[in-house]
Design brief:
Layout lengths: L1 H7 L5 H10 L14 H7 L41 E2 L27 E2 L37 E3 L6 E3 L21
Antiparallel strand pairs: 1-2, 3-4
C-alpha cells in the first residue's frame, strides 16, 4: 500500500535512476568540473509563450445609398370648350307704300354697335401636395460571433507521465476547456 501511494505521488526508484544515468554516460560528481556559464544556462532554456487573443468590437459609418429629389416644371396640354356670343348689326330693307309725315322728312343717324365674346384664359397655381425630404435613424443590435485563439503550455514529466498545467494556462489532459476557469497569467 505504501509503495502504490509513493508511485501515484510520482516517487522514483533511485537505484533504477542511477543505472539509467550510468547507461547514458554519467560517471559521477566531479568537483573539478567548472560551473555552467550564463550562456550555457541560457542555451538550455527555452521560453514558451501563453497567448490569449482578445476581441474589440467597434463600429464605423459607411454610406449605403440615398435619395435625390428633383422638382421640375411640367406642361400638360388641356382642352376646354366655351360658348361665345357675337352680336352683328343687321340692315333690312322693306318695301312700304304710305303717305310721308313730317317725322319721315327729318334727318338723323343711329349707330349700332357689334359685339363679340372672346375666350379669356386665366391660370392660378394651387399647391396640392408637399414632398418632405429628411432623414430618420433607427438602431439595431448585431451579435458578433468570433473565435479567439490562444496557446496553452503543459509540462509532462517523462519518467511518470504526469502532466502539470503551467499557471495561467489550461492543461488539455482529461479536462475540457469549458470545465476549467483560466487563471490570470503571472
Amino acid at each position: 500500500m505504501v509503495r502504490s501511494t509513493l508511485h501515484e505521488a510520482g516517487a522514483v526508484d533511485i537505484d533504477e535512476r542511477v543505472a539509467h544515468w550510468k547507461n547514458a554516460g554519467y560517471a559521477g560528481y566531479d568537483a573539478a568540473t567548472p560551473p555552467y556559464t550564463a550562456e550555457q544556462v541560457a542555451s538550455d532554456r527555452q521560453a514558451f509563450s501563453v497567448v490569449r487573443e482578445s476581441i474589440e468590437v467597434g463600429k464605423r459609418e459607411v454610406e449605403t445609398g440615398g435619395v435625390r429629389v428633383y422638382s421640375r416644371v411640367t406642361e400638360t396640354p388641356v382642352t376646354e370648350t366655351v360658348n361665345l356670343r357675337e352680336e352683328h348689326a343687321t340692315i333690312e330693307r322693306r318695301p312700304v307704300d304710305r303717305v310721308a309725315t313730317a317725322a319721315d322728312l327729318k334727318g338723323g343717324s343711329v349707330e349700332i354697335r357689334e359685339t363679340a365674346e372672346h375666350a379669356v384664359v386665366g391660370k392660378t397655381a394651387h399647391v396640392i401636395e408637399e414632398v418632405v425630404v429628411g432623414r430618420e435613424a433607427t438602431e439595431r443590435t448585431e451579435t458578433i460571433n468570433e473565435t479567439l485563439r490562444g496557446t496553452d503550455v503543459e509540462i509532462e514529466h517523462t519518467a511518470t507521465g504526469k502532466v502539470e498545467p503551467v499557471p495561467g494556462s489550461v492543461a488539455s489532459l482529461d479536462v475540457g476547456p469549458s470545465e476549467v476557469e483560466p487563471r490570470t497569467p503571472l
